[in-house]
Specification:
By secondary structure, the chain is mostly beta strands. It contains no helices and eleven strands.
């Protein structure tokens, strides 16, 4: 019922910035959780950041804390991932995901906690 579409990926040099967008349609997500994950070739899907839509709580992986910021636009039903000070190890396909039920903090870091996924957008950071 919910469709998620990521955009904003691309190629950037180390130290640069990108802002990813995730637009939701076909349903409402305002009371629950939106997450960002990434997956590099040969690696498991990795938690990046999450936002509790109604409560405003933010969650970040240690690897991105202080560099990435997740935010939302309620009117546009869109979440963003602002990525600054990018490093080559940030290179991955980035996915947004939606959970349609409340979640404990530990659950927001697990891919299995999410019900809907976007198609992914490639982020490549060159040295």
């Amino acid at each position: 019922q919910v469709q998620l579409v990521e955009s904003g990926g691309g190629l950037v040099q180390a130290g640069g910035s990108l802002r990813l967008s995730c637009a939701a349609s076909g349903g409402t997500i305002s009371r629950y959780v939106m997450g960002w994950f990434r997956q590099a070739p040969g690696k498991e899907r990795e938690f990046v950041a999450a936002l509790s839509w109604s409560g405003g709580a933010l969650y970040y992986a240690d690897s991105v804390k202080g560099r990435f910021t997740v935010s939302r636009d309620n009117a546009k039903n869109t979440v963003y991932l602002q990525m600054n000070s990018l490093k080559p190890e940030d290179t991955a396909v980035y996915y947004c995901a939606a959970r349609t039920a409340p979640a404990h903090a530990v659950a927001v870091t697990r891919p299995s906690s999410y019900d809907y996924w976007g198609q992914g957008t490639q982020v490549t950071v060159s040295s």
